[in-house]
Input
Amino acid sequence: MPVLPVHVLVLGGTTEARRLAESLAGDRHVRVTTSLAGRVSAPRLPPGDVRVGGFGGPDGLAAWVREHGVDALVDATHPFASTMSRNAAEAAAQAHVPLLALRRPGWVAQDGDRWHSAGSLAEAAGLLPALGERVFLTTGRMGLAAFAGAGLDELWFLVRSVDAPEPPCPARMEVLLDRGPFTLEGEREIIRHHRLDVLVTKDSGGDATAPKLTAAREARIPVVVVRRPPVPEGVPVARTPDEAVRWVRRLYAEGSGDAGASG
Ligand code: NAP
Output
């Protein structure tokens, strides 16, 4: 049985990670530390302990887990932060601590949507010339190189990101620095004002950035949706922070080192 309070390391960078830390911080049986990559300037900090910056790969993460007496790991990173998710799986196995992935559900197409599925940013870029000329690119500032290719010279991009992108970037673009949540009214206005005729998004899921999908449906413009990378094999998945809280509670209630899959 883990010694109380159990020390939970939450790999963060998402709203769900912050919500989980808020819930766990109110549980006297739990000590919570959130880890942030440090990519975003002035991040919204969760309660509990916070550490910032990479661990130096899976070995570094496993060493940190051991040194800081971590009893359980929750990978609550963004669904597209696949390197960190792989590192978490490897580190948890090395350090013999249970691991849970907290992943909000992906978005589901509705009547009227004109979605095109892509397996990668590069594939999404390849679909664009056939779909439109003025692109609302909302996949974040990382990976813009995929849209900088010569075949896309004729397209114009409105790139929305939290922090300013760095080259290589699309040849013709304007940058809109902003962070969600976004409103439907705001998204409608962006599409109208910039005369955007195609939207590119990752299947991030969640409410904060979903209004762009509604606005695109209303404007009858196509949407290229980049599919998620899979969760590493064998890692149980929680869909909500509450499910993750129940997984943590089972750890100390059952006195087991492995709480198994959660819903
Ligand atoms: P990634 O490609 O999976 O990870 C790259 C490296 O960044 C990792 O190997 C790790 O470095 C470090 N890292 C990532 N998440 C970390 C965390 N929570 N704490 C400490 N180090 C972390 O990740 P990414 O896609 O660049 O995302 C970075 C962060 O932004 C994540 O926390 C993610 O939740 C958040 N985010 C990502 C997206 C997206 O679309 N990818 C969107 C919104 C928010 P070491 O190997 O040195 O440990």
Summary: The longest helix spans residues 82-95.
